[in-house]
What we know:
Helix content is 16%, strand content 44%. It is an alpha+beta fold. It has one domain (2-138): Nucleoside Triphosphate Pyrophosphohydrolase (Alpha-Beta Complex). Strands 1, 2, 3, 4, 5, 6 and 7 form a seven-stranded mixed beta sheet that branches. Strand 1 and strand 2 form a beta hairpin. The longest helix has 13 residues, at 46-58. It is globular. The model has no long low-confidence stretch (mean pLDDT 93). It comes from Mangrovibacter plantisponsor. One of its GO terms (molecular function) is magnesium ion binding.
Amino acid sequence: xxxxxxxxPIIQNEGAYLLxxxxxxxxxxxxxxxxxxxxxxxxxxxxxxxxxxxxxxxxDALIINKITPWAFxxxxxxxxxxxxxxxxxxxxxxxxxxxxxxREITFNEEFQEIAWVLPAxxxxxxxNEATRITFTQKGLL
Length: 141
C-alpha cells in the first residue's frame, strides 16, 4: 500500500470556509464537498507544499495571508483515477488554518464547483467523511 502525506488548508475569509465539490469521476471522494489540498512532493517543506497545492488547485489570484498548523491525523482511503482505476492509499493529513485576503478563485479540473460556506450552513452540505471529521473536530458541526 502506498503512503501519501497530504497538506490540507482550511481556508477562511470573513467567517466563511472555502469548500470544493470534487469531480464526479475521480479522487478519494467523488462528487462530494471537500477541503482542497494534496500530496507533498519529495524535498518540499510543509508550507511550500501547502502553497503549491493552493496555487495549483485554486489559482494564483487567491492570496493566503496567514497559515497556522492546526492538526494531523491518518487513515486509509481508496482513490479513483479518471481512467476508472482505483488504489488503496495510507494517508497522513497535515491540516492548516489558513486565512485569505480575497475570494478570487480559478479552480482546476479536480473540482466541479467551489463555495464559501458559513459555519451555520455546513450541516446542509454533502461533505466527504474527512472534511466532516475536520469540521467536527473544530467544533463547527
